[in-house]
Amino acid sequence: MARTIPTVLLTRPEAQSRALADLLRARAGPQTPIVIAPLMRIESIPAAWDRAAPVLLFTSQQGVAEYRAQGGAGGGQAFCVGDSTARAAEAAGLQATSAGGTVEDLLRLLIAQRPAGPLLHLRGAHARGNLAQRLCDAGLQARECVVYTQQDVAPGDAARALFAAQAPVLAPIYSPRSALRFAREFAPAPSAHLLCMSEFVQQNLEPDAFGRIDVIAQPDGATMVESVLRILLQASQG
């Protein structure tokens, strides 16, 4: 007998969650059970920064989106936390290099390559790693500019109903702050299986508060998608 297929609970901001839902249904089938319940809303912060900066640092795809929305000139160099962010930077007209991992991986890459500055980190209001300051401490010329923020929003009735019914839930969690928000809204949730982008994300979750918590093999969007699809396939096969 096949196991009950878990409902995929997507809690990223609306546009990102809908894009992920479309991708999952394209791969796993239109019947894939998905609930979209954003826990945060992106708000742009118009800021004064050099639109023709020669070397940009991105630790999120949203940073790249704001670069484009706020008039980034393209044509420069970008160092990015992971492959998905690097692809977004390339689409924005930048020559992108991926660190293939976390902020710590990006820091190590920059210190090793020591690109000619100044380096400009376009980031959100809530960010970990203190990247620009640590680069300065390592002797590089770096600064940062906050170009967006994330406002908390309530998840809505559909998500709460899943946990009230103790239905099996599969939830990809992408950032440490998202983990905190998820725990605040839904813990304890013994029916939930959480997939964390990295160990830094996992550290913000109490293991006993959820049915299962795993860290995906590689901290990038493609690996997260494949991890979700693999679990859905396993559930469908029993």
What would your notes on this structure say?
The chain has 238 residues and is of the alpha/beta class. It has two domains: 7-39 and 154-237, Rossmann fold (3-Layer(aba) Sandwich); 42-150, Rossmann fold (3-Layer(aba) Sandwich), CATH 3.40.50.10090. The protein has helices spanning 14-28, 61-69, 83-91, 103-113, 131-137, 157-164, 176-186, 199-202, 221-237, and strands at residues 7-10, 34-36, 40-44, 55-58, 77-80, 95-98, 119-124, 142-152, 169-173, 189-196, 210-215. The strands form two sheets. It has a six-stranded mixed beta sheet with strand order 3-8-7-4-5-6. A five-stranded parallel beta sheet has the order 2-1-9-10-11. Helix 1 links the parallel strand 1 and strand 2 (34-36). The radius of gyration is 19 Å and the shape is elongated. It holds the Pfam family HEM4. InterPro entries: 4pyrrol_syn_uPrphyn_synt_sf (IPR036108), 4pyrrol_synth_uPrphyn_synth (IPR003754). This is Tetrapyrrole biosynthesis uroporphyrinogen III synthase domain-containing protein.
Summarize this structure as a short list of keywords or feature phrases.
alpha/beta; Rossmann fold; 2 domains; 11 strands
